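Quick one, T. Sequence first:
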Amino acid sequence: MLTLTLKAEPKQRVDLSPLSGAPHLTVAEIAALKVWSGKKTLRMDELFQIEGEDTSRWVIRNANAKLDCIGKDGEDLDITVEGDAGAYLGMGLRSGRIRVTGNADLFAGCEMRGGLIQIDGNAGDFLGAALPGNKRGMRGGIVLVKGNAGDRLGDEMRRGIILVEGDAGDYCASRMIAGTVAVMGSTGRYLGYGLKRGTVLLWQQPAEMLPTFGDCGAHTLAYLPLWFASLSDLDSRFAASESVFKRVRRYGGDLAAVGRGEILIRSAGA
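Structure tokens:
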């Protein structure tokens, strides 16, 4: 295991995307890597105390929200971030695992293609979304948030699963193309705005539904317990047996867009 301990809080945000190639580098090469911080470049060993030899698995200690782009476009990564992570956590991630013990900032998991991101705290806006100007958000993998998520969760999401144990902000699953979003807590305004396809699974009745969603009645969906079973390896309430249900109320929409999406809400007593 390679341990990177942040020596002091940087004055400017730091772009750690060069670290994504660390599994193929030696410790000396990692120490010599240069990363952008504001207008300057800094060597990794100026920012971090580096210990250990195994570069296939690393831990970032004393992390804070100024450390951006952790795991960006990475493959076969195994990263634990002790503390908070900055923006673009796991952006474009292809495979591997990233766990953050604190919170993550904007655009976590945006445009990721595979792997697992687990955020033990809260996630900022645009979780699993597309970058501004792009038309495809998250395209594969799983994002698990144990706290709350901000606005625009899953915006333009194309494939994959986003699981939120807490609440989600406004425009949850907006313009979603496909995939699955599941939220155990409350959801904000404009739920499913522009939803084209895909599934939004809720534990609580939303405070409001857009008028462009039609009530399709109550259903018993036999596939839902199988879907929950596929999450059994996660360290999450989604893997708990008491979370499993199959009786839902289904709403179809958004009829202002393609309209092939669905919002499934757990039926009372299910």
